[in-house]
Amino acid sequence: MHIKIGVLASGRGSNFQSIINAIENKEIDAEIVLLITDNPEAYAIKRAINHGIEFIVMIPDNYPSKDLYFKEIANELRKRKVDLVVLAGFMRIVKKPLIEAFPMKIMNIHPALLPSFPGLHSQKQAIEYGVKISGCTVHFVDEGMDTGPIIIQAAVPVFHDDTDETLSERILKMEHKIFPEAIKLYSENRLEVEGRIVKIKEKGNIGKDDILINPKL
Ligand code: GRF
After folding, report:
1. How far apart are CA 82 and CA 22, in angstroms?
2. What is the pTM of this model?
3. Which residues are the active-site residues?
4. What residue numbers bound the domain in which 46 lies?
């Protein structure tokens, strides 16, 4: 299924780039129709320009409340008929009006193995805690902070001489693999959410309804 993606990003946008690349390499049947950023300096804007992707800068302080800010974001995404919203380093907690407009249609990437180390500076938290394995998580977004149903995780080792930078770099490489992978699964309609559990359906695992809709399968 060809899907329309809206991306929200606040900074460097390397995850945004990994998704652009996967689409351009035809690994995902999708198009990114809009980038929304809360930061006029975000490098993600440059990436959008380089790839001919429309972008809008929306600064929260220019809105009377956080709820209205996210309502406006939801409106912009709806106007462009977005199927999936991707948070690629968007440094804000998403509020109800956006979550309700796109239920289980918003994905986030987090640089730790959730539910460990939610929130900010997860790599530093992991080092300071002394864990030997960390990683990254792609999850659907609910109203909590990094609490929604988990789609994919990838693990990396943590070494005793790691710094925030070395661990972040090791994790980021995995982020760039699993985020496009999760989006691909979504675009293939292979993610089924039951409460907290996300089931990944095998390719070709066709439900009764699909058979009725497309008897050729
Ligand atoms: C990534 O580490 C991501 O996990 C976190 O914010 C960072 C964004 O990096 N949510 P980038 O902007 O995608 O390069």
Report:
1. 18
2. 0.93
3. 110
4. 1-102
